[in-house]
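ARCHIVE RECORD
Type: protein–small molecule complex
Small molecule: iron/sulfur cluster
Source of inputs: curated submission
Record status: active
Notes field left blank by submitter.
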Amino acid sequence: MGLLQNNDDVHFLVEGLNFKQKVERSLALIHEAYDTYREGLVVANSLGKDSVCVWDLAKKVNPKIRGFIVTTRFKPKETVEFMKDVVTRYPEIRVFKNNEQIPGNLYTMDPDKCCHLLKVIPTRMAIEEMEVKCWVTGLRCTEGRTRTDYREVEERDIGLVKLNPILVWKEREVWQYLAMNGVKVNPLYGAGYRSLGCAPCTHITNAEDERAGRWIGTSKCGGECGIHTRPLKGEMLSI
Ligand code: SF4
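STRUCTURE (tokenized, with ligand):
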């Protein structure tokens, strides 16, 4: 049985593996998935620390691996500048954005709908246009209350595998990897942010939960934009 079929206890792996073992496991997961899906394997890049970590790991497995970024009209200018730098260095990363007209205050009135329109729909577009069979994410199970129940390999949508190769890494281990490998990160981390998103919905906090600064003051506080919870293929569910 290969690693892609593993049924290991995720929370045991978080505490049981050391840094070196986690790096080796992540590389092995991406390697096995690339051998299986070839150009159908594509890395999603949110321009946060976890994404640039996964991107660096993927490039070590095979420099031909492609990626996509979903951006929105509300991204902070620092993230937009960082994105330009990333796509200049890696032209094999495509950028997807929904430019349709929406009410300017939708993020306060109905943040779920705003995220659906500006994040989930362009992610669906990326998966369709790039003919993705396996998308690779930087999701980690210790990031916050909504991220504890994921697996390293999932198939929520039929025909679309999701690989979470750094699922069992801790925040400190991500920073350790980035420092040791000289990976450039979004400058907003230097301002004190721990989790990055759109400007109106992302704040600096001292809370323990890494994602606590997301959607403060709404029912989505510390939650999800929807790309990890809503269908990315097939029929689109109304919101
Ligand atoms: S994070 Fe906020 S501004 Fe960005 S898409 Fe979601 S609700 Fe809209």
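CURATOR ANNOTATION: The CA atoms of residues 22 and 169 lie 7 Å apart.
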